[in-house]
């Protein structure tokens, strides 16, 4: 089918509805990590602070590791039943799991059972998030003309970053209102419980949406896939799933190294308190979020590949000096220079914008409509769930081990993984990643034809 001109008002509604739900889902997922330092005290034995924090980060990481399974399951549902209702199901499951974390009794009340319940709820979060992104990016992409896909999906790409901002803003607001003692005692539960209200709003917004024009068309012509898993993974398409996974592994590592580990670095390496560290990261993210839209827009002009790979390369080259400088400016012992600390994080998040801003358009243009939900979801969550999601536990554990053995430069050891993985994926992707900017998703067979010419 040819692209039909979606009225600007309707297109804005589609992007906003998908983004709001995505922001809330990411809020749910990241509120756990944002409060990791407190959860370590509440759900593990207090006598071993480092071990408790690492255990909490490990449970946080489990949510990432399970994401490809969620992509596998919900991707199948999205290609069989439709994009709209699948990502409503994932949003509902995420919201309920997040809210329930706010009601789990502490270690002091029920012992190790608290950690096991936390683990189970984190699994549910990861499974649901595994189905969310593929649905959101597919839904938005299948409304947009080929010439502007990078720009409009770039708006959607801001939602994970804004999800962190909302989580940090909620923490700052509640902690400021209640005071440190009350927040550490019971107020930390409120950001989780608030999820119920946020998710209800997002579901209400998404229920007003229709199915995508492309899915409606293939369904009307009886062209929906009979077995998304077989077509995606037991056919020639599997090669492209592997290529996409390589690209997203590098992108995912940059995303979590430039945003989320910056928060861990401030809190656990530099011992900046929760309020000050949240302020630094939240302000930097707000300033730098437009870079995702900018790089998505620029990818419509010059291509997805040079921007995504450029972000990986710059991150690998500059992470060590940037984090060293951030440590110097964000040292509570000598006084925190908030302006410079925020500026450093803005630079880190700009790399996120380069790699993540165009990635949604790239993935949507890389796979045919019949199996797009499945084919986009699985490599995305392999790359971001495994390549990126392992950043917090690997970097934190490496730093703790380096300190324990008396290494002269623990930061260097902590950054080995965030530097090496994007560098390796960059070198591979130079040769295997295609440019998809001119791939049309509206003409049946166009993507397959582009593949045959490559």
Question: How are the SSEs placed, and which strands pair?
Answer:
Layout: H1 8-34, H2 36-43, H3 49-65, H4 67-80, H5 83-101, H6 107-110, H7 113-141, H8 149-178, H9 180-185, H10 190-193, H11 195-207, H12 213-220, H13 228-233, H14 237-269, H15 274-288, H16 290-302, H17 304-329, E1 330-331, E2 335-336, H18 338-356, H19 359-366, H20 372-388, H21 391-404, H22 410-414, H23 416-432, H24 446-453
Antiparallel strand pairs: 1-2
Helix pairs in contact: 1-5, 1-7, 1-8, 1-11, 2-3, 3-7, 3-20, 3-21, 4-5, 4-7, 4-20, 5-7, 5-11, 7-8, 7-20, 8-15, 8-16, 8-19, 14-15, 14-17, 14-18, 14-20, 14-21, 14-23, 15-18, 16-17, 16-18, 17-18, 17-23
Written account of the structure:
- The two termini are 23 Å apart.
- This protein has one domain (8-453): Up-down Bundle (Growth Hormone, Chain: A), CATH 1.20.1250.20.
- The longest helix has 33 residues, at 237-269.
- The protein is built from 24 helices and 2 strands.
- A two-stranded antiparallel ribbon has the order 1-2.
- By secondary structure, it is an all-alpha fold.
